[in-house]
Amino acid sequence: MTRTVHDAIVIGSGPAGYTAAIYLSRAGYAPLVIAGALTPGGQLMNTTEVENYPGFPKGIMGPDLMDQMRDQAEHFGAQIEYDDVTSVDFSGDIKRITTDGGEEYFARAVVVTTGSQYRKLEVPGEREFSGRGVSYCATCDGFFFKDKPIVVIGGGDSAMGDADFLTRFGSSVQLIHRRQGFRASKIMVDRAQANKKIDFVLDSVVTKVNGDESGVTSIDIRDTTTGRTTTVPANGVFVAIGFVPQTGFLKGQVDLDEDGYILVEGASTRTSTPGIFAAGDATDKVYRQAVSAAGMGCRAALDAQEYLNTLEG
């Protein structure tokens, strides 16, 4: 059976993946984008208004931005497949990619832009009540907790934005953070602190999620300075404590750091394996912004083009 070998395949989507696809398409490589089955478009699909992406002075909804990027990639010739990659073999000159649907794809160059997933609290009750009070997406689930007590856990931009958004619904919103200082940008902290509906519970960590057949009823928190444990009423528990890179499917095919992020060479997007490039939140644990992911997707496409040129050459 004759197999189709693509010049380039992009694994993942989001700003990095779609930008890489746009550049590769315009260069004439007609890339295949394996965008994911459940979350094509990445984290921005769960974001409300994006105010800091250049070119949109009044902001743009996250899903709308991703739809426009996808449409632009397709306009220039990219092919989109909505499936999840389960394993890869990058050992030869022709790279093999296997998806959850059982399909096998082959390419000379691969750009990995699989992003990251929500980090879990890993406390008793979290898994049991996931989807029944415990949520990782405020914009998805906030409406279900109208006039009910809500807690948000975290200290970054996501936590601040989630808390601010959830005041539209909750009878109360408490933001719980393990220390006094925040990772969040000043503008996001100022916005949350200016919202009189948000109460801050600092120097505290969640130790347990409690509930019954109806869902979450409360959480236990421990004061990190005194060790005292208290129970806080809550029906909605929104976890916003960071992300874990979605790189498990690589299984030693490229070098990763101790946290599972893909390692690249210097300012390039080249990985330890020739012909494999990485961009976005799967490799960037510092900036984690849509615009920086898009920029890195551009660089990955250009690096992949240079590699493909050497093969042709």
Automatic annotation (TrEMBL):
Q: Does the keyword Amino-acid biosynthesis apply?
A: no
Question: Sorted alphabetically, which Gene3D superfamilies does this protein's record hold?
Answer: FAD/NAD(P)-binding domain
Q: Which cofactor does it need?
A: FAD
- Give a Gene Ontology cellular component term annotated to this protein: cytoplasm
Q: Which reaction does it catalyse?
A: [thioredoxin]-dithiol + NADP(+) = [thioredoxin]-disulfide + NADPH + H(+)
- InterPro entries, per this entry? FAD/NAD-bd_sf (IPR036188), FAD/NAD-binding_dom (IPR023753), Ferredoxin-NADP_redctase_2 (IPR050097), Pyr_nucl-diS_OxRdtase_2_AS (IPR008255), Thioredox_Rdtase (IPR005982)
Cofactor: binding comment? Binds 1 FAD per subunit.
Sorted UniProt keywords: Disulfide bond, FAD, Flavoprotein, NADP, Oxidoreductase, Redox-active center
E.C. number = 1.8.1.9
Which PROSITE patterns does the annotation name?
PYRIDINE_REDOX_2
MF-aspect GO terms: thioredoxin-disulfide reductase (NADPH) activity
Q: Mind listing the GO biological process terms from this record?
A: removal of superoxide radicals
One Pfam family, short name please?
Answer: Pyr_redox_2
Highest taxon above the source species: Bacteria
All copies of domain FAD/NAD(P)-binding, residue ranges: 7-297
Has keyword Magnesium?
Answer: no
Q: How does it assemble?
A: Homodimer.
Indicate what this protein is called per its UniProt record: Thioredoxin reductase
Origin organism of this chain? Bifidobacterium [indicum] DSM 20214 = LMG 11587
